[in-house]
Amino acid sequence: MSLTPAAPDGRPAISVGMLGYGFMGKAHSNALKTLPYMFWPDGPQVDLRAIAGRSEVKVSEAATRYGWANYTTDWRDLVNDPEITVFDNVGPDQTHFEPTLAAVKAGKHAICEKPLALTVAEAVELERAAAAAGVKSLTCFNYRFVPAVRLAHDMITNGDLGEIYSATFRYAQDWRTDPTAELGSWAGALSIIGCHAVDQARYLVGEIDSVSALLTNPVTTAERGEPIDTMSALAQLQSGAPVTIAATLVAPGRKNMLGWEINGSKGSLTWDLEHLNLLRVYRRTGGPLDGFADVIVCEENHPLTKAWWPSGHVLGWEHSHINMLAHFLDAVVNDGDIAPHAATFSDGAAAARVAEAITRAAATGTRTTIASVS
C-alpha cells in the first residue's frame, strides 16, 4: 500500500512578525505553532513570517529553533513588511512603546507584553493610536485565560458570589532574595509582576477607585541600586469594597505564586497559579458538609477546555498563552471582539494608571484616586 499525501490546510493563514526571542519569545512561538492544530478546524493557520532581535547570533538561532521563516536585527523590517498582519512585541519592557506604536500606525494588529508601556502617557498614546488606526490590540495579561480564572469570572458575573465584600490579590516570587544575584531587570515588583495582580483584580471584581500603598526594598545594595522588591496596596473598588493588592520578588520558596481570594455575600472563591487547575469554591449550604469544595477545572463543560484533552487531563502555564493568542487571532480573522475576556490596550492603559496611583500613594503617604492619574 502506497502512502497518500495529506490534504493541504485550506484555512487562510495570518502572518505574524515578532520582536523578542527570550523567555516570552519562546512562549509565544510555542503558542503560535500549537494553536492552529489544537483549535482545528475553527482556529486560523499561522505564518511565522519573521522574528526580530538585537543579537544576530541569538535571533538567527531563535528563528531556526522556533520555526520562523526569516529573522532581522531591526524591528522596523517587521513594521515595513506588507505581508505581516500581526505585530507581536515580546521584547524587554523598554522596547514596548516605540516599536508597537510604529506597528499600529502602519496598520498592524498589535500584541504587546505587559506592562504595555513605561509611563501612563505612553500607554494612553498606544491605546489611542490603536483606536485611531482601527486595529485589534492585546495586552498580554495571560492569566485571564487560565480556565479556573475564567470560571471564577463567569461565576462572579452571573452573581453566584452575590455582592463582593472584599478580595485579596498577591503575586510572589523569590529570585531577588539573594542580594548578590544579578537583578535581571531594572524594574521593581510592581512593574514586573504586580501589574498581573492589578489586572486580575480589575478583571474579576471591577474597577479600582483609589489606593493607599507602601513600596519597600528589603534586599538592596549600592551596586543594585533601589529596585522596589515589595509592593502592598489597599484599594477601594468603585463599588466601595476593599481590595488588597500585593507583589514581592523576595518571598523565599515562592517561584511563581499568583493567588487570590474573593469573598461575597453568597460565597467565596480562592485560586493560585501554583495549583492552576484548582478552583476552591465555597457556597453556604448550612448542611454538615458546609465548606470549601475543590473543583478541578478540566471538564468539557468548563470554559477554555474544549480545544484540549479529555476530562480530568490538566493544563499548564503555557496553555494560558495559547488560549489567549488563539482568541486574539480568531478576532483578527473574523473581526470579533477582544474584550471583555482579553485585555486590550485600554486595559493595559488602565493597569498603568493603577500602578502610577500606587507609586504616587506610596511616595506621598496619601490615598490617591485613579481618576487623578493622567
Automatic annotation (TrEMBL):
Origin superkingdom: Bacteria
Domain GFO/IDH/MocA-like oxidoreductase: 150-269
Record keyword Oxidoreductase present: yes
Keywords tagged on the record: NAD, Oxidoreductase
Gene3D superfamilies: Dihydrodipicolinate Reductase, domain 2, NAD(P)-binding Rossmann-like Domain
GO molecular function annotation: nucleotide binding; oxidoreductase activity
InterPro entries the UniProt entry points to: Gfo/Idh/MocA-like_OxRdtase_N, Gfo/Idh/MocA_oxidrdct_glycsds, GFO_IDH_MocA-like_dom, NAD(P)-bd_dom_sf
Positions of the Gfo/Idh/MocA-like oxidoreductase N-terminal domain: 14-136
PANTHER family to which the protein is assigned, alphabetical: BCDNA.GH03377 (PTHR43818)
Name of this chain's protein: Gfo/Idh/MocA family oxidoreductase
Lineage of source species: Bacteria, Bacillati, Actinomycetota, Actinomycetes, Micrococcales
